[in-house]
Amino acid sequence: MSSMKLRALSPWKKIKVNSLFDNNPEFEGFGGIEVLENYDLSTQVEDDVPIKDDTVKLKTKRTRKALTSPGTDEEAADTKKSRKENVTKKKKSSTMSQKKEEGESIATGETEKNENNGRVEMYEKYVGVTELREDNLTKKKSNSMLKKKKEKARELVKSNDDETVEMDSQEESLIKRKPNLMLKKRKEAEELEKSGDDETVEIPDMDGWKGLFVPTQVLRSLADLGFKSPTLIQALALPAAIRDRQDILGAAETGSGKTLAFGIPLIYKIMKMKADSDDQGMKERVYALVLTPTRELCVQVRDHLLKAAYYTDISVVAVFGGMSAQKQVRLLKSRPEIVVATPGRLWDIMNDEEVGSYLSTVVKAPLLVLDEADKMVEKGHFEELTKILTLMKGDEESSRRRQCFVFSATLTYVHLPPERIARQKKKKKKRKRYQISKESKLDELIDTVGILKKPKIIDLTEKTQTASKLVESSIFCTQSDKDLYLYYFLKRHPGRTLIFTNSIDCIRRLLSVFSLVKQTLLPLHASMHQKQRLKNLERFTASETGVLIATDVAARGLDIPNIQHVIHYQVPRTAESYVHRSGRTARALKDGLSVMFVDEKDVTSYKKILKSLEKDDSVSQFPVDQTDLRIFRPIISLAQRIDSTQHRSDKVKREDDWFVKMAKEADLGYSDEDSGSDMEKEEQRRKKQKDQRKLEAMKSELAGMLTKGSGQTTSYRGKYPTVSGKLDLPKTIAGKKDTQAITLVSRKRRP
Q: Is the pLDDT at 239 greater than 50, yes or no?
């Protein structure tokens, strides 16, 4: 006896029979069976159980016949009548014992024995067989469609020369998991490649890039990023770099788009070289080396290049210190076309056995970029950079073919000589006056980098060197009041704020003081672990009112969006540092505010910066509400006392711990008697307890002041800078709503 296999049905399934037949067009001409209203199917059919019952088999065949060849209405009525007669017979003869004997795989739960059991049994088998047949058909269709999609995807991988490009394992797995997504991406890339280098595909609202020789793939990425027109530095650098193949020395204000000014030519040249080269060994090399002075800038440049090269097959890897060298070596095994690195870490892994042969091609790299070059080539800095450049200049043939890009906001800036040198030159009148010129600085830079041809020099910096949209101001105060003015600024003018200091110790002290007054500052300095530095940068970028306090490691190149305020808590040591610090705001033609806190020790440095940048006394005084300042003073004063007391206590404890540790390491016997007599110990213990009680009392007092809202006033809460680029003065000072700080300063200067 032939048998059929049933598909398992879910238990306790509720069925409405007639609704299934009425809604399915395949059941036309089928008489149907009586409705089982909300029937609880408490039985379960097991998988792969043969049906040997002749009655069920015949009924199943008849059901199939009714489905495949529906007859007339009379035949359908006869079929329905005969089915009712069979069901009536089945009612009388069907019992639970007969089901077990016939081997049917119906789970015997607490099934209610009623007269409809036979009809449900027949329908259950029919539905199981039908669903099994439909599922098999669906699987066959999906498998055939997946197979066709794989074949189409592999066909689209072929290049214009009909050379098949091998797909890596990652792409194959993507085709298996998401064939439609991979197919779409491949199709878009191939269409862009077929357009050619000289022809351009029309992309809406991108007319500003016409005539700059931007590859179509990069143009598509720029459209996605919203860069509909180039900046001035990009418009001047791209034709000279791509069409004329010149070396570029570019100087432009901070936030002017210098990364894309060298990034787009890199991508264009690499695409062209890979298309012209048939040697696979030549393709697995370092095409472009980008060197940056800081780790954060290294990560940022990599991200920008990846976005620009999104529609190409060019890969970019960042190599920098503070992170796992082994992980970076694994990334370099993929043979990326562009390596963005800090000089120290790159020099350390150049002799690694696993990637040594690949990194040896750095010496012959046809493209070289130095970002923030004036900082990197300073004497005494980046010794590894000198070694790398010496190796690259040693290969004369590669040096002649190499194209170099050197960029910085202060590339052409010439600062005044140190005072000690100026005094020496005054004494020696016979010698020429010591002066560094713009030309001599560039000549030295060209010689250091190893540029052999005459470069294209693009200098877009103004005499002031700072961004055109930057509003500059200053606050004169004592050293002890700097904390007060900083707290006032953060409370009265919330927004994304970046605070710069000259030392790590200053950052640690400010973190301690401002944590007491419930102000969250995110630190960033060289002594921090790199993961924590990157994490703090992400938190700062994600918060609209975040506050980042950093040393000059965050001064160069970082493109953090929408920084509203830059505060120089300590006056920078050089004018270049001031320009780069202030350049973190007022980027991409947006407004920004820079405030310098100047105490009695900083006056000389402050005047020197203004003179170097030819600002004279044009920097306005930042307006401060004295009423709010008087309210905040006791809060900050108490917080400073708490911090000072806690610092002394911790210092004594650290010294004692250090003494005990050194004694143990030297194998010297140390006991409590060595620390003094019993009276001295008791006196020290009482003093510690007294200091601790005093400290707790001050903390409780500070908490009460903060809880009562002593720091909350109803006075002015304006945001700086304004749309007009000027500073709004608080009502309590000006007495008028529209009075501005710059207007007030100009009035004070009138005789």
A: yes
Q: 602 with 644, same domain? A: no
Q: Which helix (H) or strand (E) holds 472?
A: strand 470-476
Q: How confident is residue 692, by pLDDT bands cut at 50, 70 and 90?
A: confident
What's the maximum distance between 2 C-alpha atoms anywhere in the chain?
Answer: 132
Burial of 199 (0-12, 13-18, 19+ CB in 10 A): exposed
| Same domain, residue pair 232 and 259 | yes
* Amino acid identity, position 731: K
Highest mean pLDDT among 67-71, 311-315, 706-710: 311-315
Residue 493 lies in a domain: yes
Domain range for residue 34?
13-137
Sign of CA dihedral 411, 414, 419, 422: positive
Secondary element (H or E) of residue 369: strand 367-371
Closest by CA position to 589, among listed 202, 253, 189: 253
Least confident residue range of 89-103, 205-219, 722-736: 722-736
**20 membership: H or E segment, kind and range:** helix 17-23
Is the same domain home to 283 and 321? yes
- pLDDT tens digit sequence for 480-526: 999 999 999 999 999 999 999 999 999 999 999 999 999 999 999 99
Q: Give the C-alpha distances (Å, rounded to integers) separating 633 from 404, 489, 497.
A: 54, 13, 21
Query: 312 and 251 in one domain?
Result: yes
Give one word for 528, left, alpha or beta, with left for phi > 0 and alpha for psi -120 to 50.
Answer: beta
Do 437 and 477 belong to one domain? no
Distance (Å, whole) CA 587 – CA 561 = 8
What is residue 164's predicted lDDT score, i.e. its pLDDT?
34
What is the per-residue DSSP string for 82-104?
Answer: HHHHHHHHHHHH--HHHHHHTT-
> Residue 677 domain-assigned?
yes
Q: How many CB atoms lie within 10 A of CB 53?
A: 19
| CA-only gyration radius of the chain, Å | 39
Burial of residue 104 (CB within 10 Å: 0-12, 13-18, 19+) is: buried
Q: Which DSSP letter does residue 250 get?
A: E
Domain total in the chain? 4
Residue 720 has a CB neighbour count (10 Å cut-off) of 22
Q: Which helix (H) or strand (E) holds 750?
A: none
User: In the listed set 403, 419, 453, which residue is the last one of a domain according to the structure?
Assistant: 453
Q: For the beta carbon of residue 398, count every other beta carbon within 10 angstroms.
A: 16
* 403 shares its domain with 525: no
pLDDT tens for 521-572 read: 999 999 999 999 999 999 999 999 999 999 999 998 888 889 999 999 999 9
